[in-house]
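Notes from the 1:1 (GR / supervisor)

We went over the backlog. Supervisor wanted to see one worked example end to end before approving the batch request, so GR pasted a single chain during the call. The sequence is below; no edits were made to it. Supervisor asked that the structure be written out right there so they could see what the output format looks like.
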Amino acid sequence: MWEQTIVNALLLGMTYVVVASGLTLVFGVMHVFNFAHGELYMLGGFAGYFLLEMLGLNFFLAMVLTMAVMFLVGVLIERYSFRLVRGQLIPSMILSLGLSMSLSGFALLAFTENDLSTASPFPGVIHVGEMVIAAERVMVIILCFLIMVAMFFFLHRFKWGRAMRAVAIDPEAAALQGISIDLVSSLSFGISSALAAAAGVMIVPLFKVNAYMGTAAVINSLTVIVLGGMGSIPGSVVGGLLLGFVNAFAITYIGGTIGGIFAFIMIIIMIMVRPKGLMGHD
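Structure output shown during the call:
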């Protein structure tokens, strides 16, 4: 059983990493916290369901299209709302809560409260020794890994990726070097939305999509950020994997309800021992 639990832990952990990294990116660049990030994840899930189930598109094409559309949605949201409160933590939290409730209400009206799911685009199993693993779970883990590798490559090798890192470190100095803070903010929010949407598409064949799934996603993302460190992408990776393993093993060996409490115990301990997180800067 423990082998399967490790696979489940990697699956949960890597999806947590992808979602939380987008939230971390926006916080690092714009110094705002987006509670509506979970709803962007939810919209990605519904978009994936529509493209896969209703239009019958290839899974990879559906994911790319969803990420592209949600990137544009993120740019528009940043341009006409979050740009007004950039660098203001409390106003941005209030704004994002309003946006979160609005998007949740829209989803309820459009899709009702029903759970939706689609057939697995990766049927079959993979045999590793005596262990049998569902192919879809392995594929999601690989996709999440590739997305994060691409994210790190972009941030460290591309001009605008380095510009985003510069703005995150010192926006005034970055502006003096000719970097457009507005453009970098839009780019970071667009990428953040695309990452959330990618995770949403990937979970549709595995679980179910509904109008309430964004709440759990943003809570898990906040947990990951607290564990790993605000504004740290590597911290999000460490925090996401840690949370995934704790949740998977706790749910398997203790039970779903009680096991879920362990994540909050981890937050309390982390705040007491290291408020900046495992990889946060003092």
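Supervisor's comment: Residues 184 and 245 are 34 Å apart (CA to CA).
Batch request approved.
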